[in-house]
From TrEMBL:
<feature type="region of interest" description="Disordered">
    <location>
        <begin position="1"/>
        <end position="41"/>
    </location>
</feature>
<protein>
    <recommendedName>
        <fullName>Biogenesis of lysosome-related organelles complex 1 subunit 5</fullName>
    </recommendedName>
</protein>
<feature type="compositionally biased region" description="Basic and acidic residues">
    <location>
        <begin position="28"/>
        <end position="40"/>
    </location>
</feature>
<keyword id="KW-0175">Coiled coil</keyword>
<feature type="coiled-coil region">
    <location>
        <begin position="57"/>
        <end position="91"/>
    </location>
</feature>
């Protein structure tokens, strides 16, 4: 038997997966896919948020437009009311002038009317008093009673 050199048992070398070009490419491709998916999700979120903000911006612009139209309507109403107020103030000034002229012209006549009313009141009170006295004289002298007076009585 010949003596051959005996080699000690050694395990076969296992390749490092990172050294294998196929595995390395597969891992690299998978990492890129994951990164692309992550980027895609981020971009989807960003684009969704961007679209949402654009929609909100359009809505706000529409609201601003409507508010501007409302302001214009109110301004038109205010302008009409200001014109009406000016017309009414002119009319009021004209009427105040007329009233002051009327008071100046009619004032003496009104005072005379009040004096006449006072004289009539005095005369009326005197007539009432005399009527009361004469009625009492009819009752005392002739037995007249106003409750029992008939239409055909001559007293």
């Amino acid at each position: 038997m010949s003596h051959a050199t005996v080699r000690p048992y050694t395990r076969p070398k296992i390749k490092d997966p990172s050294q294998d070009p196929v595995i390395s490419m597969s891992r690299s491709r998978r990492e890129k896919e994951l990164k692309n998916e992550q980027t895609s999700r981020e971009m989807s979120g960003v684009s969704g948020a961007l679209l949402h903000r654009m929609h909100e911006l359009r809505q706000v612009q529409q609201d601003i437009k409507e508010l501007d139209e409302g302001v214009q309507e109110y301004q038109a109403q205010i302008d009409l009311l200001i014109e009406r107020k000016a017309r009414l103030q002119k009319t009021l000034a004209k009427h105040n002038d007329w009233c002051s002229t009327f008071d100046c012209m009619i004032g003496p006549f009104e005072q005379k009317y009040e004096d006449c009313k006072a004289e009539v009141k005095i005369s009326f009170d005197h007539a009432k008093r005399k009527y009361k006295e004469s009625l009492q004289k009819l009752i005392d002298d002739f037995g007249f009673h106003p409750t029992y007076k008939r239409w055909f009585d001559e007293f």
